Amino acid sequence: MDKHEMRQKIKYGNAILITVMILIIGAALFAHLVYGITPVIVDGISMKPTLHTGDVAIMYKKPYNNIKIGNVIVYNYYGTLIIHRVIGIYEHNGTECFIIKGDNNPIPDPGYPQYCGYYTINGFTTGGVPYFEIKGVVWTYNGNEPIVIPYIGSFALAIRGTGSDAFLSFGIKI
């Protein structure tokens, strides 16, 4: 094979690679825009043993009235995105509210008492998270086991550092 043939094969290979990359990026963008599908990187220990720092989970939009106890959700807590499990649901003054707790946490999250009042569950009184702060639900199998790609997000966390919310929906702090 001469140099000309080698260059032609390299150009052809590069064209295929670029085409595949464009198709993958296009499919991911379509899934995000149409279905609200977003990869999220877990950062923290509050969901152990279910989720670990560096795991990538897939979040999607789901109507809040279809969220059930046991679902793992992503919600906004005063500018920080949190990924925890729903352990209770109630209504307060016409607002649907969710009691949220990390699997590794001893008590539920503090929530937003100004919107959801206070609610007692399992001996703890806490505020709920109003439906409008919920950003999405994590895809699961076998009921409520999140589908994750283990530790693949560790590279992104190494670059930006843990405990930072610079990536917003792509870097979930728990």
Structure, explained:
The protein has helices at 3-35, 113-116, 154-160; strands at 38-43, 56-60, 72-77, 80-92, 95-101, 118-121, 124-127, 129-130, 134-138, 140-141, 145-146, 148-149, 171-173. The chain is an alpha+beta fold and 174 residues long. Strands 1, 2, 3, 4, 5, 8, 9, 12 and 13 form a nine-stranded mixed β-sheet that branches. The protein is elongated.
Quantity of strands, as a count: 13
The CATH topology label of the largest domain is Umud Fragment, subunit A
**Full CATH superfamily name of the largest domain:** Umud Fragment, subunit A
- Please identify, by name, the CATH architecture of the largest domain: Ribbon
Order of helices and strands: HEEEEEHEEEEEEEHE
N-C termini distance: 56 Å
Number of domains: 2
CATH class division of the largest domain: Mainly Beta
Q: Beta fraction of the residues?
A: 35-45%
Structural class: alpha+beta
- Residue-averaged pLDDT: 84
For the biggest sheet, the summary is: 9 strands, mixed
Please bin the fraction of helical residues.
25-40%
Overall 3D form: elongated
| SS element count, helices | 3
Q: Tell me the radius of gyration.
A: 20 Å
- Low-pLDDT stretches are 164-174
Entry keywords:
2 domains, 174 residues, Umud Fragment, subunit A
Summarize this, please?
The chain has helices at 3-35, 113-116, 154-160; strands spanning 38-43, 56-60, 72-77, 80-92, 95-101, 118-121, 124-127, 129-130, 134-138, 140-141, 145-146, 148-149, 171-173. It has 174 residues and is α+β, with helices and mostly antiparallel strands.
